[in-house]
Amino acid sequence: MKQIKGLKVTEMIHHAHIAGTGSSMPERILYNKDLESIVDTSDEWIVRRSGIRERRISSTERDESTTDLSTRASTKALEMAGVSAEELDMIVVGTVTSDRQFPSTACMVQEALDARNGVAFDVSAGCSGFLYALNVVNNAIQCGTSRTALVVGVDRLSSVINWQDRGTCVLLADGAGAVVVSSSPNEGGILSTHLKTDGRLWKLLYSSDGNAYTPDILQGLAKIPFHLKMSGSRLFKKAIECLSSISRDALKHNSLSSDEIDLVVPHQANIRIIQALANNLHIPMDKVYTNIHKYGNTSSATIPIALDEANREGRLNKGDHVLLMTFGAGLTWGASILKWSI
Ligand code: UT7
Q1: Residue-range domains of the chain with CATH
Q2: Does any ligand 1 atom lie closer than 6 A to the CB of residue 312?
Q3: How would you classify the pairing of strands 263-266 and 321-328?
Q4: Residue 170 C-alpha to ligand 1 middle, in angstroms?
Q5: How many angstroms separate the alpha carbon of residue 168 from the centre of ligand 1?
Q6: pTM (predicted TM-score)
Q7: Which of 92, 194, 181 is nearest to 133 (CA)?
Q8: Nearest Cα to 74, choosing from 169, 173, 152, 164?
């Protein structure tokens, strides 16, 4: 109860809690050995430089579109949360590889789930799409404009990879993860989220065409649209610098020391980035969840997939402090601390 100029105002505080997690991976596994016949690379180089052993590549023939993967991940998250699709008042999808330029993947997922009672839209923030989307939902819940929301992180980077570029095609892959977020008066859930963007560095990772396209008649046959370009080693250093700094901000904001973090769920871009971050933050690797060896870098999907696997494997207990870290095209990056409540 709060007193304002003689009036008693009942002030309800809303906290955003993750109530269910889900993920969906394409069936087809592409092993490092398979890539040896596509580009000049080796299993040894890929494992040593990135930690990746295999990844999943989607096929629309197997109903593995961006919408299909998102819908499957969402259905699992809804089941775990015990929430019906009708109860969702907000669906936010972080992706850069929507099935269509419009409508958004969120609208397609809304139809697939038959979730009629909410708003649905996508967020584009490179690999950071999931955490940016989660932050939108967290803000809506804290303001009281949403009570039950779905956040999806999904990408099918296989659709924008240049399969002749060994610097990227061995790293990137497809997948989807989702969480149901519910409003609660109980403390905990998403404690804080810290996001940053530096548009001056967009050229370190981008798709070479996209909306700013030149009509076919002017561009000639040689031009291949939508190919991803990445300055790997510059991004590598930036990721470590930016994520170390923003994670320290997140810890300080919550008056937590790094040994009070029970599990780190980082963006899975490179095992060496993850190890360097753990080292900088003085967090042992057994408190860091990694699945990059089996899925590679699935962009917006890495964090919700890892969160779902950690949750289903029993790595998360009620009351645990969980540190999420994201980094991607934009450049975009961020960190969030959760007090786990499932
Ligand atoms: O998800 C969002 C953002 N993405 C990232 O954060 C990715 C960050 N970057 C990375 O993960 C790493 O920089 C890479 C895995 C991309 C590359 O690892 P690196 O240790 O930084 O290698 P490099 O780019 O410095 O290349 C070293 C050598 C080069 O050969 P030379 O010039 O030394 O002869 C590359 O041409 O490795 C070569 N190389 C490869 N060799 C075999 C690059 N890709 C490959 C490959 N197989 N696939």
Answers
A1: 14-342 (3.40.47.10)
A2: no
A3: parallel
A4: 10
A5: 8
A6: 0.94
A7: 92
A8: 152
